[in-house]
TrEMBL record:
This is 3-phosphoglycerate dehydrogenase. It comes from Hominisplanchenecus murintestinalis.
């Protein structure tokens, strides 16, 4: 029986895919696999039983990726599964920033008992007037799953769209509308755009990306949107820029003490992916990834190990080895199998940075002795007999 636990609520559409071979447990200490959304995992003790973690979402900054890789724990995410949910909220964010919908709705609430409300509204509404987004310039930093959808939707809304992503994938580039202006220098976005939205992962290299220097370059009255992570932006500098009017509105999906009470911050409680559809898409993808790894040893959409696929496990025995990406590993594994008179009928070896993964289909069952020999190879982090 394989055991999984959920560190956040995970949609039933995904959990329902676990069959009788799986048991849901309450704590990580008992689990072979973990499903998580935004729960912080950096300080958690990771038990030896834990084989895999699936992030039902995109950002993995809440998970200690390297610590997991060192323990042979494969971490997955669900690329693109919540991108449409975020895209729609980014569009809403642009509209909330350009039309004073929040001010207007709040005014109606304060006047709700007033019998003259209809007449009064016609007099008062000018204080909530705004401007249109059609024809405005939108700069998008990061053209991955979300950035692309925002870019294409904004083109359809009549915006002039500038896109910046020095690492854009070929797949992503194919999906982008031809009407998007491809920008090679992010400063051009800062200097030219009326709206700027950021859709990059939180990494050491992207932390504080929108800093004082970037803000100084921006047009007066710019709107900045952040549905990626709060510490991508120097929010103290952002609040100062709001006070001087340099930035008209800062729309963020990440409430904190710096922004929550600021008049011109539109702060949303991390709702980007909180739609029925996104939650279901993420849960289904996350559970499928976990099951394929636990049952077949295949890795799809891992962020700390390479992708690897040998299809369904139909051989007598399948062994997965998580190991360091160093020389002579394969020769040591094949010698161990050969010396034990075992034939390898199929194998794959893949690497990603400092880590690698090897999957072997064998014609004989694996003995405890051979298993111990594999485990004792220097650089081996985990050996799993899948079948
Ligand atoms: N508010 C919410 O609920 C959600 C927030 N997110 C956040 O949004 C981020 C992006 O999500 P996706 O688009 O799904 O990820 P993705 O991985 O598909 O796209 C990220 C893109 O950023 C690009 N990039 C990386 N470094 C860059 C840099 N220095 N400058 C410009 N581009 C750079 C990459 O090349 C990639 O194309 C996630 O990492 C997560 O932090 C994601 C989903 C939901
Ligand atoms: O699970 C959530 O609601 C958070 C989504 C998110 O931030 C992500 O996928 O990176």
């Amino acid at each position: 029986m394989l055991k999984y636990t959920c560190l956040n609520p995970i949609a039933e559409a995904g959990l329902g895919l676990f069959d009788d071979e799986y048991e849901k447990v309450d704590t990580i200490e008992e689990a072979d696999a973990v499903l998580v959304r935004s729960a912080a995992m950096h300080d958690l003790e990771l038990p030896e039983t834990l084989e895999a973690i699936a992030r039902a979402g995109a950002g993995v900054n809440n998970i200690p990726l390297e610590k997991c890789a060192d323990k042979g724990i494969v971490v997955f995410n669900t690329p693109g599964a919540n991108a449409n949910g975020v895209k729609e909220l980014v569009l809403a964010g642009m509209l909330l920033a350009s039309r004073d919908i929040i001010g207007g709705v709040n005014w109606v609430q304060t006047e709700r008992q007033n019998e003259e409300i209809a007449k009064l509204a016609e007099k008062q509404k000018k204080q909530f007037a705004g401007y249109e987004i059609q024809g405005k310039k939108l700069g998008i930093i990061g053209l991955g799953a979300i950035g692309i959808l925002v870019a294409n939707a904004a083109v359809n809304l009549g915006m002039e769209v500038y896109g910046y992503d020095p690492y854009i994938s070929v797949d992503a580039a194919w999906k982008l509308s031809r009407n998007i202006k491809h920008i090679n220098d992010v400063n051009e976005i800062y200097r030219e755009c009326d709206f700027i939205t950021i859709h990059v992962p939180l990494l050491e290299s992207t932390k504080n990306m929108i800093n004082q220097e970037a803000i100084n370059m921006m047009k007066d009255g710019v709107v900045v949107l952040n549905f990626a992570r709060d510490i991508l932006v120097d929010e103290n500098a952002m609040v100062m820029a709001l006070k001087t009017g340099k930035v008209r509105k800062y729309v963020t999906d990440f409430p904190n003490h710096t922004t929550a009470a600021e008049k011109d911050c539109i702060v949303i409680p991390h709702l980007g992916a909180s739609t029925e559809e996104s939650e279901e898409n993420c849960a289904v993808m996350a559970v499928q990834e976990l099951k394929d790894y636990l049952e077949n040893g295949n890795i799809r959409n891992s962020v700390n190990y390479p992708n690897c696929d040998m299809g369904d496990c139909i051989s007598v025995c399948r062994v997965g080895i998580n190991h360091r990406n160093t020389k002579n590993m394969i020769s040591q594994f094949t010698s161990i199998f050969g010396n034990a008179d075992m034939n390898i009928c199929n194998m794959v070896n893949k690497s990603k940075g400092d880590y690698a993964y090897s999957l072997f289909d064998l014609e004989q069952p694996l003995s405890a002795e051979v298993l111990e020999r594999l485990k004792s190879v220097d650089g081996v982090l985990r050996v799993r007999v899948i079948k």
